[in-house]
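I hope you will forgive my troubling you with a question about protein structure. Here, with my thanks, is the record as I have it:
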Amino acid sequence: QVRLVESGGGLVQAGGSLRLSCAAFGTAVSVNAMGWYRQAPGKQRDLVAGISSLGSINYADSVKGRFTISRDNAKNTVYLQMNSLKPEDTAVYFCSTKIFLPGSGIVDFWGQGTQVTVSS
């Protein structure tokens, strides 16, 4: 069974940093595309950063130069290092992956989310 578990959220002042972790169970982060998304109250869930199985990385324009996505294959964990945080970064952050399951096709898996709050 595939499971994603996020951690590392919290309350931080503007300009501060946080590192989010996404531990994967039942699948390997090295062979799947992994992504970090965020959802602020009343807004849609948007992609923040993604890393492909080949290591290609993309970021939302709003976080370029401030956030860094990485993965540790040995720990089967994906990270999101967030620096120079702004109040508008406040949201619930989710880890996600897409996996092909025989009989089901491509299935989206999501973690439970971790709250990030940036105070001004």
Observations:
- The mean pLDDT is 96.
- The longest strand covers residues 91-101.
- The chain has no helices and eleven strands.
